[in-house]
Records
---
Amino acid sequence: MQDLEKDFQDRIDRGEVIEPRDWMPEKYRKTHIRQISQHAHSEIVGMLPEGNWLTRTPTLRRKVALLAKVQDEAGHGLYLYSAAETLGISRDELFEQLNAGKAKYSSIFNYPTLSWADIGIIGWLVDGAAIINQVMLTRTSYGPYARAMVKICKEESFHQRQGFEIMMTLCNGTAVQKQMAQDSLNRWWWPSLMMFGPPDAESTHTEQSMKWKIKLKTNDELRQQMVDVTVEQAKVLGLTMPDPDIKWNEERGHYDFGEIDWEEFWQVVKGYGPCNKERLAARNKAWDEGAWVREAAVAYAEKQAAKRTQAIAV
Amino acid sequence: MKKEWPIWEVFIRTKNGLEHRHIGSLHAADSTMAIENARDVYTRRQEGVSIWVVESINISASNPSNSDSLFDPAIDKAYRHPTFYKLPEGVKHI
């Protein structure tokens, strides 16, 4: 190993935080650009399934909460894009990668929000899974990423609570409402578990990511954490977990659970999920139709700057 | 025409009496928009009472590879700290 790389690894092993202008291996930089931008894209695309219900919330209370949550997601995307940009990639390049379908985002957002209960489920399970991952990432080795995570985690916990409250209300409601909640859990449970990524044995990035402290826990460890907390929460709601193999394992001190359909996961990752095309089309539409706004803002700023220069000259 | 909005660094005074501290960065066409965007992004939960924005290109930063020559000379100057000086037991208010 080269000296620089050895020094770098020593810094990581000592628990030091890496900052943008520090020397870093090219692969560390590239891995971070990939991971942080995927994370940012997930926040941005994640607004789409929720936006689907913004005009149809059952009450005004739900509407202001959902609006605030969606606005938070935009902010989270922005924190993350900013962190990625410290590694020497521009915002436009990042958007172009997303819009061209070259960049990935969390495949959970390629599933449709068919009922109001899905908004509750997204807050409870999808944000719940995101929190498990993000709490770990507050201690990741790259400073700007870790700091973005701290801000995000602070804001995210309201998201999960508002989701759980929606579920609770439905579960305490009529039989039809409860059925709606159950149906939503049935559809979203497995994709939520897939959010943690492929099993450790098949994960190509895990080993290096652990060494560089980009990740501090493996996909399977985080997934187990998700199963353990969710099973207990589902009991409070009175919902049935859609997995007959879920069973407390005294020896492991964890819940056992059934086999995940990884074929489905890879299909969605490769672009064949229920909403992949729709999501990308929505992002491209927003980008293209916003072009004149971006251009007009630059033209206005340049004109104002020219006026100021002129005023000084006179 | 294709031109990316410049990056601005954002500093927030969290409450009256405290200094402005760096909170993050964002893109904006000009300083007015940068302040508006900073308000939307960084103060949605009353995190601030005042915002500064500075275009990133205007910030000069020290180079991490010069850290030794910049900061090392302070390491062996313990006499700049009050604990360097010995006082007898019982001396008060000093």
---
Amino acid sequence: MDQDRVNQIIDKYKGKAGSVIQVLLEIQRENKWLPAEVLETVSEKLGVPLSRIQQIVTFYKAFSVAPKGRHEIHVCQGTACHVRGASRLLDKVEDLTGIKPGETSPDLKFSLKTVNCLGCCALGPVMEIDGKAHGKMAPSKTAEILRKYE
Amino acid sequence: MPRIKSPADLEQFRKELLSKADPNRPCIALCSGSACNASASAEVALALEEEIEKQGLRGSVDLRRTGCHGFCEKGPIIDIHPEGICYFNVAPEDVPEIISETIKNKKVVERLLYTDPATNEKIVYESEIPFYKNQERRVFQNNSKIDPKNIDDYIAVGGYSALAKALSNSTPEQVVDMVKASGLRGRGGAGFSTGKKWEFARSTPGDIKYVIVNADEGDPGAYMDRSLLEGNPHAVLEGLTIGAYAIGSHQGYIYVRQEYPLAVKNVTIAIKQAEEYGLLGKNILGSGFDFFVEVQQGAGAFVCGEETALLRSLEGKAGEPKARPPYPAVKGLWDRPTNINNVETWANIPLIINNGPDFFASIGTEGSKGTKIFSLVGKVNNTGLVEVPMGISLKDIIYKVGGGVPKGKKFKAVQTGGPSGGCIPAEYLGRGVDFDELAKVGAIMGSGGMIVMDEDTCMVDVARYFLSFLTDESCGKCVPCREGIRQMLKILTNITIGKGKMSDIDRLEKLARTTGAASLCALGKTAPSPVLSTLRYFRHEYEEHIKKHYCRAGVCKQLVKSPCQNSCPAGIDIPRYIRAIGDGKYGEAVAVIREKIPFPAICGYVCVHYCEAKCRRGELEEPIAIRELKRFAADHDNGQWKENVKVASPTGKKVAVIGSGPAGLTAAYYSAVLGHDVTVFEALPKAGGMMRVGIPTYRLPAEVLDKEIKEIENVGAKIKTNSRVESLDELFAQGYDAVFVGVGAHRGTNMGIEGETTPKIIDGIDFLRDVNLGKEVTVGDKVLVVGGGNVAIDASRTARRLKAKDVTIVYRRTRAEMPASKEEIDEALEEGVKIEYLATPTKAMKVDGKVQVELIRMALGEVDESGRRRPVPIAGSNFTGEYDLILKAIGQESLVPGTYGLVVEKGGRIKVDPETLATSRKGVYAGGDVVSGPASVIEAIAVGRQAAISIDKYLGGTGNIEEVLAPPEGAPAAFNLEEAEGEQFRPSIKMLPIDKRLKGYAQVVLGFDQKKAKKETARCLRCDLEKR
């Protein structure tokens, strides 16, 4: 993450007591994860020991210290989606992104995950990107949808 | 806008706002809460703006994007004012019509209206929709009226008048007293008196004090606070400011989950606007009181809803709770006196100040005043947020407001209070909801989560789910919570995968007690509740998982091979035989079925098919026609199963079976296969029980029955007809070692009306018996059948076949509640049977050789404990009819001879141990209708299997009745996705033309041919192959 941007965020909250969580949240939101050097910067600039920052980022669920893609793709593998071709949809997504479920693409664009049932069986097969459900997916429509994400 | 400097200024400003507003000007209020946003509310808003512009209405219609209206199930929602028209599930495509029809022409767009599922009527106005009508909206009332991003909207509906009143008319102490007098208790769950809490914080010395809004709403399935903060943030701010004044605080914090971005956004905007108006900040309304508010976001930790953990988090630390005391009122944020209340509590404050504590306390119960917002979710028709007076019954919330359980499924429990709460079973649905009442039944009201569960919810899995949630969320600081929850989860997980032991239940209870007693904060203290409450009311489900590896709800994957097989009382491997039929191996299919039941053909003709109700294909289009396929296989059986039947060598033990119904014959079959010398005693001239005398031959041909009964004789069981057994002592004297009593329920239940004994009023079940046994029966022209079950339908169709011209069924509820199977109701209607719903006979008398019956109309009233609406007579709606014959079919009872010496319960039912079927007499077992009351063939078969097991064990055997009749199964062929793909419905089932049906007793359902059967098997989703 751009060092200047990190500094900007820190400055925005500087001087306010207990602001470290708010700073980390904002960085997490923009960068999708918290690289080690960013944690060091936050520690130095806010004067909070790195050990406490480590405690915070591992305590709260919102934080990730491993790289995550900017966009999270969930492909539903529930039965209803399955019979409507969810595995072929997954194959197509794997082809297009170059990653398997549980992986993040090297350019940090996508993370891919399979999920059991998203509860919208009537729309199967379903693919969810960043929480938005794309229903009645056909493998042929996949490329077009993924292109919309930068 | 200049700052508002005094209460008078505020009133003046409000007057100006109101005078500018034209009450007749159309206003479209579009719900823009989180749930509606997920269903395209933003797109609808855009379409509305465009369309208003396009149709030249700019400036003459208002568009208001409001907060949550509560009926999230039906979003996006639009209210059109001033008429109050309500549209649901609005899509962008609907917008042009809404503008041109409703706004311009003042016409209602019918298809967007709410349809009452009970009456199928369209409802135009919000105030008439049951979901809204049965609520009492006070805290929530402005959510659907105002734009949360516009402070003027809030001021126009009276906003900040409570603050003005408190600052100008009352001392801080008086404000505290008012809140105390109102009886308001904290809405976050613990229910501590808000006034007292304020008093503590006020009386603690200190110049710096803090007030905090706890908006870290984390219970799964609960979102009341989010909707308030999103939809009416100023109400929360106003309450908070009043509290700050009362306590003497000048700095407030709103601690809101970062997962609620819209709430963060709206409350941030609200703070800014309030500051600009002088309603926050320095010298508020010229009173000299200063108060500032900041928003802090939570970073995703459930435990931060606990107040001491929340404070640590606000201080920028990991949110681990601390021991109390000292309480936050003494030592809170940065060790200063601090008062924390949740969102809904704060939002109640302006109501108390504006209307007075007495008004507030005028509704609710003795110990719990005011209203409460619940998030009503799960297996309920009307999902959403509901505000109801404290003390309302669970039943009213779930059925009146919530519209009951969807798809006609059976209610099982309601879970209240989230992970800290418990599950409440149907028997307590009448309980009033408040802080104290629900605690008495092992649950809590909590912060307002209310999750409705139906028959498809597994209670062990529910407990496991909450504990897995809590394992993740336990902060780990104290051992009892961290380890206790983890160990309980481990045990629960073992139970759900079939590795549980009976001793686990005791261990769970012990762990639960220790965790509850020894944990530091409320998370751990209440964590055992989901376990304890499910154990309290659903212990049998735990035991079924442990002892029988059976999950009745079909949820626990490791125990459920497929939903269909799991729901079959006899446990037939349905996917396997469907597959065999698809492969053309009909003999193998029958062998698979015969491994569990001795009556494949009979079940193919008449089974009630619980399996089809659970079939996953049914969620897409229609369930697989499992029964029809079974019949097809049985009709094409090559008898290959016989090669593998192994009758054990004689054991020398004699077993007597009384009654040759499906339970008795099944017990006889397996007992004979195990080598016992079995004799079946049947009182009637023919064997088969209800299969013979209760089911008309046009549904179950006598030859089919004869053939399968013959197979039972072929394994050595003897059947003696015309042999009534009057005494069990005699049987034992004759050398029988064990007895199974399966005498069924062959006596019709009385209606209990005046003139019931009038000639020509007979039992439907007697009527069917006489017809099936070939007796001469005359019915006359006009027949009335009373009842709504299968006997009523069978009797009415039989009456039509006996040339009755006019056959009417009278049923006291509606078709939706009718217990008879849907197909048979349809077939009866096709055959000219009429059904009079919502009526019941009250009186009968003989008039000129006919029976004159007086009937009364019924209406569906309150929901009873069974979850069905109870029919109540409508006074003065009596009417009469004259009939040649009345057939009563409202239920059956058993008639067990007293000489049997068995303990008998209500309805003549024999009392047995539900697991072993052992009666009060040694060596005597009982099952079937005589124990359970009228049930189905497949249930009787399952009971017969259990009887054979118990009797064999009693006689010194192992009780192993499992048979391997089908050839070993090779690797199943790969699932042919292409065949199953796409929308596919059942192939049509060939039926006998109606004119031919009424000429006699020929089969009505003619079934599948080979081609259709194969096609139908291809629709099977093969749930049995799913990864586990």
---
Amino acid sequence: MSLYPQSQAYSQAPYPAHGYGQPVPPPAAYHYPPPPVQPVFHVDPSIFRRDYMTRLNELTINSRPVIQSLSMIAQDFTRYAEIVVQCIETHIRRVPAWMKLPAFYLLDAISKNVYDPYARYFTPVVVQLFLETYEQVDQDTRRKMEEMLLTWRTGAPNGRELFGVVPQVAIERQIWSGDQTTASSSRHPSTSTGISAGQVLSELDFVLGQRERALQSNSYDKTAQNHVAVLQQLRKLVQAGVSQPELSQILNQLRALAPPAAVSSQPSPPPAAIPSYSQPPFAAPVPAAYPGPADHVTHPAQVQSPQSPYPSTFDGLKHEPVELPALTSQTLPTPTAAPAASAAPPLVVNNITNLYNALLKAGVVSASATPTGAGATAKAEEATENVDPARAAAREHRKKVLSQKVKLTSTDINKQRSEIVHFLYQRLPTQCKQCGIRFPEGSTAKKNMEDHMDMHFRQNRKAGQAVGRGHSRSWFVSVEDWTHDGAIDGKGKGRANGSRLVTSSAAQAAETAQREAELRAMFVVVPPGDEAKSISCPICKEPLKSEFMEDDEEWVWQNAVRKDDKIYHATCHAEALASKTSLAVRLRNEVSSRSRSLTPERRMRTTPPRVAIPLDGGAKVPGSPSGSPARSSTKRKAEDDETSGERTPPTKKLAAEPA
Amino acid sequence: MSGRQHAEEPQSEAASAGARSREWVLEPETEYRFELDPGTSLIIKLVCGHAEIFGAELAEGKPYAFGSECKGAVYTWQGCTLEVIGQPSTEYISEETPMSAYANVHMALERMRVRALRVVHGSPPSSNEESESDGDPMPPRVLVLGPENSGKTTVCKILTNYAVRMGQGWSPMFVNVDPSEGGWAMPGAISAASLDSPIQSSSPASTLGSTATSAPMHISSNSLVPITYWYGHAETRRNPLLLDRLIRNLGENVAERLDNDAEGRASGIIIDTPSSFAASSAANDHRQTLIKACVDAFGINVILVVGHEKLNVEMQRAYGNRITVVKIPKSGGVVELDAGYRERVRKYQMHNYMYGEVIEAPAGLGAGYLQAGEQTPDLTHRLAPSSSQVAFGDLTIYRIGEETMAPTSALPIGAARVVSEMQPLLVDPGQPGSALYNAVLALLAPPNPDESERYDEEVLDLPVIGFLVVTQLDIPNRRMTILTPSQGSLTGRTAIMGSLEWQE
């Protein structure tokens, strides 16, 4: 009698992860052993289908590990993509409403991370599936689905709509067309053609969420603090109710804001800005670095600074809202009026602040609550919220460790029994199934775990993409870079991609060349009647070449970008922008606290973007008019040497002593 | 070495496709030990339970590959079942391990870390726990000493791995001052790197993890960014004065880095040393100086002596008044390694630096195994070095001190050395007998561009940015062919040769 349950419990013990209490046919669990851990061995499509279905059934709650493992299988078995898509579709249709969202997250993860061929296969079914599900689920889930939908706008690797424009617009029209499905706090019921407060609110929440996450990962970021504060205020406003034109204004601005934050939250290449849906989509091939047309035809786009390493904090440099005349003066010249150090923050925050100012001007917002005031409050709140869990965990750990009375003496070492197992295993219940690394409980740790899983995914994808390219051992870094690496990475954050410091020179050169090519591919359509007019770039004074584009049957200026109604060479403009960026970087570092009192020029050296390693003597882009990478590289090299030289003589003295 | 065949056949399961697969059931606190012959490999899979290799936990169900004469042990605190595929020359289960002692050492070090971090954070002492502390809590800075084959490197690995596994975000600094080991870099080098994920063990070619490559890696200990100095010889007695200076250079850089990183500083330093530091023969009068160099350079506050009573007493006498000196037991699993094995391991390391290493799974097993925790070793562990021809003049090559040098004591009384041990001597590749052919050279970071700041022995203080091997010398045309880890111009560079050679 007593033997049976015991032995049963024992035989189950190694497989606690595979639940038996699921709504799906429990008998199956007895017929088949739990699914093998290694998916590598499936071959037969029908077995694969059965297996994938079984695993899908484990997805009852929003569990990142389960979703990750399911998408990894999907990635490994792209030849069964159709089966995967069918399984997920069936699953979503079949399961009760409360289980649908996790499955949608899986769909989302596979489509974004693997993309090809999955996004293609999902496209035909996604609209129907989304709308059906949206009908069935509760208000909370709907909001989450809306958030997800917003990320689909730029979800494809090239920054375009994940499933194409048509499905995206189809879904958005359906769910935001009337106000029957959206939050009903609006005092102004939307007209059939207008924008509902609900739509604005959910987009606002989305951007707000991104900013808050950015703030969490870098709680000292004043820009993010201000952003969050302003956005929160906006949210209150919209909830209280604003007029239709204001709503559309907010929405337009929000959309201009969204992409850079998306870069920081997704491992995909920098997505382009979102094309406005009220216009027909831009048909010409748009290079990824080109932010696409903005909402107003008169000022199409700005060059996205290709070198900016801080996508989320330097929005201001990329997407300056052009209709505000006050700003136009800032687009190219460096700020001179204010003292250098204090000029950086306005440069950085102007994006959201301008949105706010625009509303202020429109009389929507009262000037009593200034964004800085709100920012300060938000900062204080965030600080207490963010620091406490980590500190509390450290305190907890300290208490527990200090309760282990082990002293560093031979007797203690050999006689004592410490609770090592508790520290190594039990206190860290969540384990990465890929590499065995463990994580503690709690929200901070959960985020770390998620980042960790994302890292695996990214690395796998990179490894797959790099086939045939050939890898090589990197050169070691300079003393300066090494001694400051710990301070920059903080708690090893950037360490997961440790090769960041030592990108091979070939990859660097390729990257530079690609950026160059992208810039050169940019063009501006010649206004009708101006075909014969010859204009020149304000920066280099060279004339712009005009050409007839066969595809669009239009005259265009090649390698051109329009900025404040002036046409620049895209390459010249990018270079000018890059030099401004580095100035901003320098200013930013000026503000940030670093214990050593280095001059700004030297600080700049330790911040990305890292140009080629000194060894190869600079990047080589044949025919590059800018030549700036090479120059900056040599410059930095010189600075490196300078400091290492300053440092070494004491070494000599020190080392010469013992003899 | 290759002749030993232990005919162990435990619970043998049906062998699949020629690969011998069997299951080992381990009781709590026991370990499965294995040794591999040259050219063989092994797959170990954790079927159930929990297990770790030198402190790095295994993921359940993942096949881990081992090769290149790897000698290892899978330890379990709670008990586990392992599936082993392949043919090790020796395999057995041991119930006697020093793991609980090592765990106690770790807990004691962890106490030092949390105290040091408390000071960094400025939190008040929480309770009576703190009363025993002596005012100024310092993070652990540990020097591990021991004779040959005592498992020093393993102890360092376990202590480092346990630290990063605490879930506290520790990133201890691992320093290797054993030039015969080479660590991440190459034999002949000493180096330091900060670790934030467990060091994996799969092959003696990368015992301490690997330095960064252009390939994407899952485990950060496989893409380390070390600071490295080149000593150039495997034996410490070749030029102790030079090693002393390099240790101090290394220590200075580590200190500077930790000055910038308060939390990293609280994680502490763990230093692996050469066995010659422990051998007390008359010919080793330099070892006290070198130990002192380590103690000074890294601010050592704990010395661990692995299984050597006499050394323990000696250290107690020398440092007992200001440093905690503790003797810790040696593992019975340590394999006595002969000179031939050490020579082969050096070759594996050099080969690994240039070409990477992909362990071939035992016959009959497809892809899909992990090597050092990496999921696609065939994509990421195969490296392509670059071979190029350079003119003699492109590269300035030095040798430090004279090739063969009699000890100072052997010189006639009153006679001074003509060439000091520390003097950089220019090597002319055009001269026959330069010994450059097949020599391993360390490429140095660029010297000071400011001529006035330069000094004669500057090359001694420049860190290494990479290693080269001279594969061909064409004296008539004054050209040589060199193998470099990746592409890049060498013109105007300085390199230092040592006594290490490598050829395929």
---
Amino acid sequence: MKFRGKILDIACLNHFTRVITTISKLTKTCVLRLTPDNLFFVLSGKVANGGVSMWCELSQANFFDEYQMEGVSPEDNEICLEVTPENLSRALKTLQNAKAVKVKLTKKHCPCLTIAAELPTLSSINRVVTHDVPVDVIPRRLWNEFKEPSMPDFDVSIYLPPLKTLKNIVDRMKNLSNFLVMEANLSGEMNLKIETDLVSVTTHFKDLGNPPWGDEASQDGGPSQSRDPEDMAQARVDIRKLQQFLMGQQVNPSKAMCNIVHERVVHLILLHEDVSLQYFIPAVA
Amino acid sequence: MDCVVTGGNVKVLAKAIHSLSRIGDELYVEPQEDGLALRSVNSSRSAYACFLFAPLFFSRYTVHSGHTFRCKMAIKSVQAVFRSLASLEKTVEKCHIELDDQNNRLTFTLHCKHGLMKTHNLSFQDSESLQAVFDKDSYANVFRSNPRLLVDTVMHFPPSLEEVTVSVSDERMWVRNHVEEEGDQSKAMLTELCLASDEFDHFAVQAHNSVTFCLKELRGLLVFAESTGLPMSMYFDEPGSPVVLSVTDSVLEGNFVLATLSDDSNHRKKNNSRGAHTLPPPPPDDFMNDDIDSYLIAMDTSVAPGPSATGPPTPQLADSICSKQTAAASHRTRLHSEEEEEDKTTDSGRPPNKKFCSLFFGSVLPPSPQMSTQPVSSQQVLASDSEDDVQ
């Protein structure tokens, strides 16, 4: 197993740092899957994570100037590591003015992702910083837990309003209740509701638009097409999970979407050119 | 005592008090002939800090000669006088510090803009002189740099980190985080920074040592050094003997004396660091040297070895499989740590000694003006407080 990548461009470094910082806000630990073309940050929906799962996909070519990897074997040309994104984020944040940053898999006291950077100085010799972030190598028999989650057979798919607006509303609602109902229909309307014994609050959004998913998404002959456009699909979710997702946002997505499987799951998707982040929040009864 | 500080010096004084507050809970105030000394020591007496402001720092400075006065007070209450550093610079025109003999109060009066006057009457306790003895001239390793260099260095370490280890060779200084428990090591992130000697204004190394000391106090003095723009010096000898950090100007001097981890526990650390850094001397252009093979990680063998080994592996990969098959059969990627463990067992005869040596012992110091802030050349280490906890 070998991995080595090098980032020279400061904008790429910056972007990479933002993505990892966003992930670090979502989860304490996650799995980093390295393939010849992509990096994936994966959180599988275990009960310990509150049932939340995450899938973040980066194309290596958009970040790395050099990227070499050799997986476990030629057939399974992948590397699977358990990482603490917080550590990676902290290491990268201090290197924002670096001339070059290298990320490599090393064997020190334990397997590490070593982040080494060359910092500019006034002297003739550059300052070199290395951060050894301990990782766990995940054995191949466990890899199947970290496959891309299949797109749920959603009832409604809708574009999200500006995330900042959403965040402000969810932050307020958090003070009133622990659970929030997200509902949306196929005519571009979405509501955020909380209901307690004392108060009911609903925020209405309209004209959000529904993403055209084409044939491949309308599964089984497309239940969503035969659906009444006014009919709401809803899911009741833990408000903290949603808040966490909105709070850590540093990616500035060009597209933000939400798919709702009625009373099952909320599937949030952020797209930004080369990065896609998917986040699944299970519905609670 | 009666002294007046004006203009930008008020902020300097305030910054000094703030950085002293990083050390201990009490501020020791001693007006001397050669200036006003402000000192602090931490509860475990492993860190001591002293600022001496020369009479020229003040626009008026008078002490009653022949009548020595020393006191200590809660540093929080003094900090409260200079609470907002930002507004201090804009609003305060002068600060008047006066001893109110009759009421036994130390009075701080801030004269602000628009004729506003703020008076703080602070109570105090009498105290003995507090003095750590160190001789900066006797240290083997001396460094001086712009505070920016050290600020940029400590920035790479997390705020929660307690101790850093500094190692030096003739041309380089390495700073890395000190991880205490061996058990923690697998989880802790290790950070290391290498500074070249020509980044320093002055870089004199006689002993290739590494010392471990607390980061908190260093950060404290750095806040002061950075705001005043004064170069910062660092002096150290060997593990166990204190490291001295200092800033000097024509009108003020600040010295922070910090205990370092003693040799016993540091010995192994030092060996480790030798192994890690000096034995294979890092080539200057280490960063650019990229032999990817050196970053080989043991194969994960949890899948039945048959198919992967009999597959058509590249020559390199076959190599790696052969070399790892024996060692990493059951424990993945533990090869290296086993070697380490062996080292440890041979070493473990020693009791684990992770304590910082206390630098200061209680004792009463004759009130002699030379003793107070001048470095004293004797090896005896003195300091005093009300309690007599001789080591």
